[in-house]
Write a structure and sequence with these properties.
Chain A: It comes from Dicaeum eximium. The complex is a heterodimer. Chain A is built from nine helices and two strands. Chain A is mainly α. Chain A folds into two domains: 44 residues, no CATH class; 88 residues, Orthogonal Bundle (Recoverin, domain 1), CATH 1.10.238. In chain A, strands 1-2 form a two-stranded antiparallel ribbon. In chain A, helix 6 packs across helix 7. About 5% of the residues of chain A have low confidence. Chain B is α/β, with parallel strands linked by helices. Chain B has a domain of 251 residues. In chain B, helix 8 links the parallel strand 3 and strand 4. The C terminus of chain B is likely disordered. Classes of the chains: A mainly alpha, B alpha/beta.
Chain lengths: 150, 455
């Protein structure tokens, strides 16, 4: 699958974050994704089942755990993949989401406020741990899961 | 060597007799009823037998799959994932409610908002409403055509034999028959209309022209073994009106035209289609456009208006979707035909895909391949509903009127009513829609700054 194939889906093309989502499927530097890669990305959205909590915690974490789901969302914000959401990155993503309807200053102040609230170690950027802390009350499991009909 | 001679002549005799018998049968059972519009009901019996065979075949497959513990592939009509139809605002409010204890009325931005877009995007990648309309519908039970079978494994000898028999019947018996009929139909159409064209204009000419057209379309209908059920025939389109229908394939034209007398609208083609078009125009006025003219919408609208205002001219047949859709849904109607202001007679066409899927996937098959596929299916079964006429109300504009007609057609035919443009088959979506979504979201977060500036 290439990026153009994804862009042919009309409902994805009108999603303001469509391009970021498409990017999430393609690993670093590649332009094609095969079925395995496609599946791995979609696996993040499998609903969490109860019996998985009792599984062996020493093994590698399943792709659809809460932490991995949060990581997926984190990667959507983190444009340069440096594991930090800087003010610029947040601004860019916000700009994608609102288009031309909000001025730069307004957007800037929204970004500043968000970083202020989330930032705990004072580096003016949101790391993954801070991201998790902010969203600890949000029901990630339910919001980031897609159920298949049987 | 001497023994061969009498044998030879015997074979030739038999061949000659069988061909004559075949032709007489053809004439009596198919062409003559076509001329008078009468039906012997043979096709209905054929359809009932086929249904019984299909049911048996499906049961057999399911039983075989259970025995061998193979998971059966079952197509889902309504989509493969559970989607909740909530709006942007609802979802985001819900997320914030669970996330933070802040007041819900102050609009502001939260990091969790991204979840909404993310999830919506992934859902559409898994299963979206639009792209699946451009490929053939998937069937729930098998109809003995290998082209529709997704479980194609060896299940039982009887099933394979039945399938083989089906192939034999379809390709060796039905196909030549249908091709012969189609050929007869088309040549009769061309010659008939040319001949009628030579007569002087008048009532006699119209009468003959109408019957020549009807007769030839009926022969073509039989050529495809199309079993059509017409509903509500009292609502059939009248002179000076526009007939709109949902579009699944070029066969729609034949199906509608065999029950009524319409003026066609379309592009001028070359080749065989061109010959047919030119011949048809001689007998009665159709509206054929040059390709260059199609782009000029005003010219098109003007010609259509002229045609419609002349009360003696026939109702125009238009397919406002502009492209073939796979008959599970109705896509956006182009507003051009609704701006003219004539009475609109909506018609809903629904094919039964069990006997042969009539959808023309024009990016996959050319016209000839498509026709061959049609002729090697079991039959084309469809229902045609004539809906009561609609006119544009003074307070609605063309787009709203088009949508109203579209909903009526979708409701009648049991199809999904979509707002997407059928042109998305080949083109990308307009940016305007993306901007709409962006606007909606920005409303949710922009209020925060206003609050701030006030305090």
């Amino acid at each position: 699958l290439s990026r153009e194939d994804f862009q042919r889906i009309p409902e994805l093309a009108i999603n303001p974050l469509g391009d970021r989502i498409i990017n999430a499927f393609f690993p670093e530097g590649e332009d094609q994704v095969n079925f395995r890669g496609f599946m791995r990305t979609l696996a993040h959205f499998r609903p969490i089942e109860d019996n998985e909590k009792s599984k062996d915690l020493n093994g590698p974490e399943p792709l659809n755990s809460r932490s991995n789901k949060l990581h997926f969302a984190f990667r959507l914000y983190d444009l340069d993949k440096d594991d930090k959401i800087s003010r610029d990155e947040l601004l860019q993503v916000l700009r994608m989401m609102v288009g031309v309807n909000i001025s730069d200053e307004q957007l800037g102040s929204i970004a500043d406020r968000t970083i202020q609230e989330a930032d705990q170690d004072g580096d003016s950027a949101i790391s993954f741990a801070e991201f998790v802390k902010v969203l600890e009350k949000v029901d990630v499991e339910q919001k980031m899961s897609i159920r298949f009909l049987h | 060597m001497f023994l061969l001679l009498p044998f030879d002549s015997l074979v030739v005799n038999l061949l000659g007799i069988s061909i004559t018998v075949l032709f007489t049968l053809l004439l009596v059972f198919i062409i003559v009823p076509a001329i008078f519009g009468v039906s012997f009901g043979i096709r209905k019996v054929y359809m009932k037998t086929l249904l019984k065979v299909f049911q048996w075949a499906t049961l057999r497959i399911e039983r075989g799959a259970k025995e061998k513990n193979h998971p059966l592939y079952k197509p889902y009509v309504n989509g493969i994932i559970a989607k909740e139809p909530t709006s942007l605002e609802q979802e985001i409010k819900e997320m914030r409610r669970s996330g933070s204890g802040k007041a819900l009325d102050t609009p502001e931005f939260e990091l969790s908002d991204i979840f909404y877009f993310c999830r919506k995007g992934i859902e559409t990648i898994m299963d979206d409403e639009v792209t699946k309309r451009f490929s053939a519908e998937e069937l729930e039970s098998w109809n003995l055509l290998s082209r529709t079978n997704y479980n194609f494994q060896y299940i039982s000898l009887r099933l394979t034999v039945l399938w083989g028999l089906g192939v034999l019947i379809r390709y060796c018996f039905l196909l030549p028959l249908r091709i012969a009929l189609a050929f007869t139909g088309i040549s009769l159409l061309v010659t008939g209309t040319t001949v009628v064209g030579y007569l002087p204009n008048g009532r006699y000419k119209d009468f003959l022209s109408k019957h020549v057209h009807l007769m030839c379309y009926r022969i073509c209908v039989r050529a495809l073994t199309a079993i059509i059920t017409y509903h509500d025939q009292e609502n059939r389109p009248r002179n000076g009106g526009i007939c709109v229908a949902n579009h699944t394939s070029p066969i729609d034209v034949i199906i509608l035209a065999s029950d009524g007398y319409y003026a066609m609208v379309g592009q001028v083609h070359g080749g065989l289609m061109g010959v047919i078009q030119r011949a048809m125009v001689k007998a009665c006025p159709h509206v054929w456009f040059e390709r260059s003219e199609v782009k000029d919408r005003h010219l098109v609208a003007r010609r259509l208006t002229e045609h419609v205002q002349d009360k003696s001219k026939l109702p125009i047949l238009i397919f406002p979707e502009g492209t073939c859709i796979n008959n599970t849904s109705v896509m956006m109607f182009k507003k051009g035909s609704f701006e003219i202001g004539a009475t609109v007679y909506p018609v809903a066409i629904k094919y039964d895909p069990q006997f042969g899927d009539a959808f023309w996937n024009s990016s996959k098959y050319g016209m000839v391949t498509y026709l061959l596929r049609m002729m090697t299916s079991w039959a084309i079964v469809c229902s045609v509903w004539y809906l009561p006429p609609m006119t544009r109300q003074p307070e609605e504009d063309a787009v709203q009127f088009a949508n109203r007609v579209k909903s009526a057609i979708a409701r009648q035919g049991g199809l999904v009513d979509l707002l997407w443009d059928g042109g998305l088959k080949r083109e990308k979506v307009k940016d305007a829609f993306k901007e709409e979504q962006q606007k909606l979201y920005s409303k949710m977060i922009v209020g925060s700054h206003e609050d701030r500036s006030r305090s």
